[in-house]
Amino acid sequence: MKILLHCIYYPPEVGGLESHVAELARGLVEAGHEVRVVTSRSLPGVPEEEVVEGVRIRRTWFPSRSPVGWILHALGSIPVTMRWAGWADVVHAQAFASVAPCQLAARRHRRPLVTTLHTSHFLIRARSRRWQAILARLVQASRHTLAASVEIARVGEGLAPGIQVEPLTNGVDTERFHPVEATMPAEPGRRRIVVPRRLFPKNGVEYLVRAMPLAVAEEPGLEAILVGDGPERERLEALARELGVADRIRFLGGRPHSEMPGLLCSAEVAVFPSLMEATSVAALECMACGVPVVASRVGGLPEIVDQEVGRLAEPGDPASLAEALVDLLRDPELAEAGRRARARVVEHWSNARLVRRHEEIYGSLVESGRGTSPNARTTGAR
Known about the structure:
The chain is α/β, with parallel strands linked by helices. The chain has helices spanning about 15-30, 65-75, 80-85, 100-110, 120-125, 130-140, 150-155, 205-220, 235-240, 260-265, 280-290, 320-330, 335-350, 350-365, and strands spanning about 1-5, 35-40, 50, 55-60, 90-95, 115, 145, 165, 190-195, 220-225, 250-255, 270, 295, 310-315. The two termini are about 20 Å apart.
C-alpha cells in the first residue's frame, strides 16, 4: 500500500507524538509499504525534503508553536498534501490539527481518511464548548478514528452522537529500546532515577523537584538525571537550589533519541510526574529497557503502569510522589519489576503490534472502496 501521513512535528523534533509517527512510518516501510510524511519546518536547518529510513518527508512552512501557528501550517500544507494524496491509497491525519488538509485531499481524490487523536492538546480543547463543535466535525470526517489512550477515545466519542473511536496505545521499537550497558553509571552508594521529560508545565517536573527533599530524607543516596529541555528549565534549576537539592539533580537537556536507551539504563527507576498525559511513549521506552516506572495517576499512564511494573502517585502531590518512589526503590523485587515491564511492552505495545493493526485498518478501508463515508468503523479487533 501507499500511505500518506500528516503530522505537524516530526523528528528531529523530540517528543512522544514525533516518536510514534516516525516509528510507525519506519515499521510500515519495513513491512513492504511505501510511506510519505507531510510535516513542518519547525526546526531551523532541516531540509525541505528528504528520505529517512525509506520514508519520504516533505516539510512545509511553520510560523509558530501555537494554535494559530498550527492552523496556518495546516493551511500552508494543503498543496503538497493534495498532490501526495493522489499518489496514496490511504491518508492518515496524526492529531486533530492535521485533519483539515487531509480531509480536503482525501475528498478530492476519494481516498479513505484515518485520524489519530493524540496528546493533552486535544483533551484541553475538547473541554471548551467553542472547540467541541469544531473537533466533532473533524472527527466525523474520518472513516476510522484512533486514540492514543482510552481517556482520549472516550472524550472523542463524547463530542457528538454516533462517533466511534478505537483506543490504540502507541508502540515502541523493542529492538532499539532494550536493556543495554549504562552510559552514565551511578557512583557507588548512589541510587539513580531518570526523568525523561520535556520541561513544560503539563509534564509536572516541578513536583519531582519538590518531592526530592522528601525522598532524599528516606533514601540519602538518591539522585536524579533530567533528560529534556524546555521553558521551565531556569525556574526548575532555581527551585532545586532553593530546596537544597541542586547537587542531587542533573539537568542534561535534550539528547538524541539514539542516546536514550543507554541513559535510561543508567537508572534504577524512571519517573513521570505528569499533570496531563496520553499514553506516554517515553514511559513505554523506559519499560522496554527494563526500567520500572513511577507515574502520575492521570490519562493513559494507569493503562500501562501498575504495582507489577512500578507505582502510581497522585498528580501534583510531591508527598505522594516521594512515597511511591521510595516504596518502589525499596521493593526487593525491583529488578524483577523491570523484567516484567519489558515483557509487558513486548507482548502488548511493541511497534510490530502497532504496525500490524494499522495494516489491518488500512487494508480493510482500501478493500471496501475508496470513499469518504464519515466515521464508519472498519472491521477487526479493537
